[in-house]
Amino acid sequence: MSQKESHNYLHALKDVHVAIEGILQKITSVQTGESCSKCDNACCHVDICRESIESDFLRFILGPEVTKYRDDTGWHMPETGCRLKFGRPLICYEYLCSKVKNKRIDEPVQISRKIISIYSNVFERKHILEIEDVSKIKPHKLKQIIDELKTLKEEASEALKRVS
Question: pLDDT tens across 47-100, in order?
Fold first, then answer.
């Protein structure tokens, strides 16, 4: 398979990943009925945000958005919350504060865990977030990941319909 085909697979993977993140964010906002941006004790910290610029995969997902990262605050803005629409560290979809945990919110956590699982053992027994150069991932593995993510995207869309 050519380098161009691998490049195309990476961009297809990015598209489906971004779509799933969008669905996760919609599910969370529908279920909580409030925005994390209104929280006076935000869980979002620079050390968590940093993963998005340290991981080659998340930098790829972010594209030019990576230049908007701030060393002092990461992606968090007190008045608006997380500035990222996509490319968030995966922990952001698993962590739920006590205010949110009191509400029915299992779908995003389950979807997030499935993403983490899909991205595990991708290249040299490493999680995709640990790989120093995502272009080294074999095309057949990229295709497998894309297929699994597409299935997960359908699951996430169904979850969104249930909570809307």
Answer: 889 999 999 999 999 999 999 999 998 998 877 778 889 999 988 877 666 555
Token pair 């319909």 is found at 161
Task: With beta carbons less than 8 A apart as the criterion, state whether 76 and 44 touch.
Answer: yes
55, 137, 141: which is closest to 90 by C-alpha? 55
How far is 112 from 95, CA to CA, in rounded Å? Answer: 10
pLDDT digits 0-9 by tens, 119-136 = 999 999 999 999 999 999
SS3 (DSSP) at 61:
helix
Degrees, nearest 5: CA angle 147-148-149: 90
| Cα–Cα distance for residue pair 38/65, rounded to 1 Å | 23
Residue 73's CB is within 10 A of a number of other CB atoms, namely 14
